[in-house]
């Protein structure tokens, strides 16, 4: 089985090594091997498992806090920045398979955060929620949950403020455009809330574009 040191770092040994190999295969590998199985499906699964595990941890650690503050803590805990820091701690970058011409990844590359989620998803398929929880514990994400401020979670703040309206409202996010290249895409997103207005923003990831759009709408709302 490959990546023994990585498995040691995450505290879990895979029974099915193919799952770990898939989790470590970045989408850029398809440039060299179009039919290769990349880690996007596992990332999708791992994102959901990570959210559940983080919510469970925070629910137990902060028994008096309401949903809004718990949501903020979870956002900090599982943010791309937090996952990239975790990737550095476990030495994930050296095990990641990418296209042959790929340049070295910067510390905060989304590819690293996605791969961490993919590894969690692979562990879930290999050994169930207990296995995913073992990996979650090894990532050391708890320190990121100490901040319950909104500063890094404009989507969460917008959601709470919108729901506080009478009648309650919900932010609506719309992908307007995808430009750029496969390696450097640019997503343009519009967010709207009845009674608040709307705002548009662009970024290199869909999630970041949504976050920037939410922040812009909040600034506009506060300036009234």
Give a structural overview.
- The protein is mainly alpha-helical.
- The protein folds into two domains: 4-146, Ribonuclease iii, N-terminal Endonuclease Domain, Chain A (Orthogonal Bundle); 154-222, 2-Layer Sandwich (Double Stranded RNA Binding Domain).
- It contains eight helices and three strands; from the N terminus they run αααααααβββα.
- The protein has a three-stranded antiparallel sheet with strand order 1-2-3, with helices on one face.
- The protein is globular and about 55 Å long.
- The model has no long low-confidence stretch (mean pLDDT 89).
CATH topology of the largest domain: Ribonuclease iii, N-terminal Endonuclease Domain, Chain A
CATH superfamily of the largest domain: Ribonuclease III domain
Assign an overall shape.
Answer: globular
Q: Helical region count?
A: 8
Order of helices and strands: HHHHHHHEEEH
Low-confidence stretches: none
Beta percentage is 5-15%
Percent range of helical residues? 40-55%
User: Architecture of the largest domain, according to CATH?
Assistant: Orthogonal Bundle
Q: Trace the largest sheet across and list its strands.
A: 1-2-3
Query: Largest sheet, if any?
Result: 3 strands, antiparallel
Rg is 19 Å
Describe the structure in brief:
This protein has helices spanning 4-10, 17-23, 40-61, 67-77, 80-89, 110-139, 154-163, 206-222, and strands at 172-180, 185-193, 197-203. With 224 residues, the chain is mainly α.
């Amino acid at each position: 089985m490959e990546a023994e040191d990585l498995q040691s770092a995450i505290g879990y040994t895979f029974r099915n090594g193919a799952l770990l190999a898939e989790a470590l295969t970045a989408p850029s590998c398809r440039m060299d091997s179009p039919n290769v199985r990349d880690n996007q499906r596992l990332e999708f699964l791992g994102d959901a498992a990570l959210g559940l595990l983080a919510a469970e941890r925070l629910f137990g650690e902060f028994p008096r806090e309401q949903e809004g503050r718990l949501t903020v803590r979870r956002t900090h805990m599982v943010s791309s920045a937090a996952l990239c820091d975790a990737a550095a701690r476990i030495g994930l970058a050296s095990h990641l398979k990418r296209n042959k011409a790929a340049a070295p990844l910067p510390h905060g590359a989304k590819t690293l955060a996605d791969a961490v989620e993919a590894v969690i998803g692979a562990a879930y398929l290999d050994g169930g929620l207990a296995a995913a929880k073992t990996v979650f514990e090894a990532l050391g994400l708890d320190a990121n949950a100490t901040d319950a401020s909104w500063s890094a979670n404009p989507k969460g703040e917008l959601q709470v403020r919108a729901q506080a309206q009478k009648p309650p409202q919900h932010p609506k996010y719309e992908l307007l455009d995808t430009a750029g290249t496969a390696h450097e895409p640019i997503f343009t997103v519009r967010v709207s809330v009845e009674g608040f207005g709307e705002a548009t923003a662009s970024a290199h990831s869909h999630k970041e574009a949504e976050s920037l759009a939410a922040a812009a709408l909040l600034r506009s709302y506060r300036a009234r």
